[in-house]
Amino acid sequence: MKPLTDAPSGELDGLAPQSGYSACAIRADRSYPCWGDNSSGQFATRRGKFVAVAAGGTHTCGLRPNGDIDCFGSNYWQTAAHSPATFKAVAAGAHHSCELLLNGVVFMVL
């Protein structure tokens, strides 16, 4: 195993699921540091708090405390789009994003 040289320092609340060449985490203050490949702007700094974050291949999606999803980075595959609804979980893959609605339905953007 090779140690990460550009991983964030400080206390982290959890590591986010990741896909591709980057990763993100959630800090105790609900901010999110990301590291790795940022060639598509997937580490865009968003103001406010997040309860979860998921790093995709060229995009990142974050779940806010009110259930909104905020995605940033490449939208080439429309992976940064999402339904105007309230969510309880988020995941991101190489070319897709999945969001879990409060009623248990999964919304997938391909």
Explain what the structure shows.
With 110 residues, this protein is mainly β. The protein has one domain (12-109). 0% of the residues lie in helices and 38% in strands. The chain is built from no helices and nine strands. It has strands at 12-15, 22-27, 34-36, 52-55, 59-63, 69-73, 87-92, 97-101, 106-109. The strands form three sheets. It has a three-stranded antiparallel β-sheet, with no helix packed on it. Strands 4-5-6 form a three-stranded antiparallel β-sheet, with no helix packed on it. A three-stranded antiparallel β-sheet has the order 7-8-9, with no helix packed on it. A hairpin with a 6-residue loop joins strand 2 (22-27) and strand 3. The termini are far apart. The model has no long low-confidence stretch (mean pLDDT 78).
Biggest sheet character: 3 strands, antiparallel
Task: Report the structural category.
Answer: mainly beta
**Widest β-sheet, arrangement of strands:** 1-2-3
**Individual helix count:** 0
Helix content: under 10%
Overall pLDDT metric: 78
Count the strands? 9
What's the SSE pattern?
EEEEEEEEE
Stretches where pLDDT falls below 50 for ≥5 residues?
Answer: none
Shape: globular
- How large a portion of the residues is in β-strands, by DSSP E? 35-45%
Radius of gyration based on Cα positions: 13 Å
Number of domains: 1
Oligomer: single chain
Terminal CA distance reads 33 Å
